[in-house]
Each structure stands twice: as structure tokens, then as C-alpha cells.
Amino acid sequence: MSKQETRVISVSRREDLPALAEAARVIRGGGLVAFPTETVYGLGANALDPAAVGKIFVAKGRPGDNPLIVHIAREGELDRLVTRVPDRARPLLARFWPGPLTLIFPKQDHIPAETTAGLPTVAVRMPAHPVALALIDMAGVPIAAPSANLSGRPSPTTAQHVLADLAGRVDIVIDGGRTDVGVESTVLDVTVDPPVLLRPGGITREELEEFLPDLQVDTGVGGLPPREDFRPRSPGMKYTHYAPEAEVVVVEGPVEAVQEKIRDLARFYREQGLKVGIMASRETAAAYGEGEVLVVGGRDELASVAANLFASFRRFDALGVDIILAEGFEAVGLGLAIMNRLRKAAGYRIVKAGEG
Ligand code: TXA
Ligand code: MG
To answer: What's the mean per-residue pLDDT of the chain?
Structure first.
């Protein structure tokens, strides 16, 4: 892609929303606009324009067989995208939209194959962010948007992360500050009954189970290594994801054992001359002494851990560490999404502490 100039529009207050008119024009004209959502920044284009959607794949270096999420601003827009809204999806829409829940529906023919990577289904979500909603409304078209990072890099939670990856590759970056949730939306397939959780995210499995007691969970959601015969239902699940430049090792188990194992591993790697980063929690950080220790949150503050996770990967890269030793968290509530991202970033280098 030829280098182009990327403009930055800052929108920090409601009064700034009119400045989005220019970004909306760019979307309508077939350009690329990165924008904040409540989860992570998205890289948006007109979802109904195959050429515009094609630019997303080029800018990110994204494999063409990984479909995009289509973002809408009003529930009524769903009827123009899908052929059917299954009965079991209705209460989910009522409860979780706008919000970090993406649902898979059977698609209407006019949605380009580029957007859905040739699948007969389409992923749709209504983001809970005033800037995203205003942009979609002003553009007057649904916006296809993956996370606004280079393919394989950690998802961006600030406009600076977006610019670090995509400056010169997109027309506009809308700076709306830090995103709130920090991990991507939950992806749920409602074309099948019972529905299947394909990617854990901002809406927890337990929250979904209140509506769907028979919820099925796809292999890979826990972020554990795929079996030989693994056939992902969500194409995005098969790619290495979220990875910083440094190697990541996740250490899981009872917290005291985790601390001890991380101290041992840190010593071992330092003896080999490697620069070690430790992703710690508030309760444990002091035990690691010197070195590059980043606190992502308290052990019981999973919302804070999720919000800081991707930013800390990027911070460790900026610090030039060779290896990141990350404390594991219990895979319940938001912990499931956190562990899915951590284990994938680790390329399944998982150490169990305190066993045997
Ligand atoms: O929070 C989010 O979801 C962010 C913000 C920008 O909305 N977006 C995001 O998009 O994370 P992306 O492209 O990074 O992840 C989309 C995921 C991928 O795992 C993809 O394979 C899956 O959704 N997906 C999209 N369409 C699908 C479909 N028709 N069937 C199954 N999986 C689908
Ligand atoms: Mg992504």
C-alpha cells in the first residue's frame, strides 16, 4: 500500500462529536477510519463496499479468510443485514446491546463476500461507545471493523497504539482516549441451537448462561492448545494472536506457587543474559524485586487486568524485554477472556506451578 497521510481527530467530549462528520464522509467515500469502541479500537470501512473492505485486509496484513464484525448503531439496522433473528437471540440483544457481544447470524445476499470471508453468516455488534455510535449514524452505513492493529499484534486500547501500527495506512484515526473493557467482544454463534461461544470477551460466559443455560463452548475458548483434529468454527481462532515481540510464558496455579516459579524462571533467564519482564498483580509485585515488573491490577480486579493487558504487552516491547513471565488468573468471569488472550500470546507456553 502506498504511504498516505493519516489525520488524527480528537474527540474527548460530547461537544466534539460534530467533528466526526469528516470521518463519516471518509467512510462513505470508501476510506478507512480507526475509531474507539468500548472494547478496543476498530479499523472501520463501509461494510457494504467490497473495495473499501478490501483495504482493511491490506492495511492490517490480515488473511482474507478471517471475516469481519459489522457494527451497527440501532437494532433496526439488523433486519437489513440478516435473514433471520433466532428467538433465542432476542433477549440477548435486549440485555447486552449496545455492548461487547457479537452475534453470528445468517447473512443477506447484499453483504459482500469480502466482509464475511465468503461465509454464509455475518457477525454483528452494536458497540457501547458514543463515538462509535455517532460515527456509524453519521456515515449512514454499517461499518465493518476488526481490531485496529497489524495482524498478529496486540489489539489497540489507545489511539497511540493504532498509530504505532497503522500510521500511513489509514485515512483517519479518531482519538477518544483509552478504551474501557480492554479485551475484544464476546463472539456467540446463534445460528445453531444451542448457541456456541466462539470467543470469550467483554460479556462473560456466566452472564450468557443466565439466558442460555445450555450454552455450548467451542474448543479453543479457554486458549488451550488445539487438538490434532481441531477445526475452528470461528476462522480467527486459528491464528496466533495478540502477541508482543517478546516471548510470553504464562505461569498458572496457586498464587504462592506462581510467585515462586516466576522468581525461579526470572533468575534462570537472566543468567542466560535475557531481559525479563514480569506481568504481576498488585498483591504479588513486591515479591519480584528488581527488573521490569508491570502491575496489571489486583487479583480480584479482573476488569482492571483486562483493561491493562494489551497495553502492558506493548509497554514490555517498548522496554525491550526478551521474555515476559505472566501470572495466570482463574479462568472464570472476565478471567476466561484474559486467559484466552494470555495463553494465545504465549503460543501455548504454559507452566503449571505447584503441582507434583
Ligand atoms: O471488540 C471487538 O470485537 C473488536 C471491536 C473493534 O469491535 N473487533 C474485533 O474484530 O475484535 P476482530 O476482527 O479482531 O475479531 C473478529 C472475530 C474473529 O475471531 C473472527 O473470526 C470472528 O470474529 N468472526 C467474524 N465473522 C464471523 C462469522 N461469520 N462466523 C464466525 N466467526 C466470525
Ligand atoms: Mg483482532
So the answer is: 93
CATH 3.40.50.11030 spans which residues of the chain? 247-352
Superfamily of domain 247-352: Threonylcarbamoyl-AMP synthase, C-terminal domain (3.40.50.11030)
* Average pLDDT of span 252-273: 96
pTM score: 0.95
Task: Give dist(CA 309, CA 4) in Å, integer.
Answer: 30
Fold of the domain spanning 7-181: DHBP synthase (3.90.870)
Choice among 9-18, 92-101, 134-143, 238-247 with the minimum mean pLDDT: 238-247
**Separation of CA 274 and ligand 2 centre (Å):** 29
pLDDT on residue 329: 96
For the chain, first and last CA: distance in Å? Answer: 53
Q: What residues have CB less than 8 Å from 19, skipping those under 6 apart?
A: 9, 11
Write down the residue that cell numbers 464522509 correspond to: 25
Mutate which of 41, 69, 185, 186 for ligand 1 pocket (most atoms within 8 A of beta carbon):
69
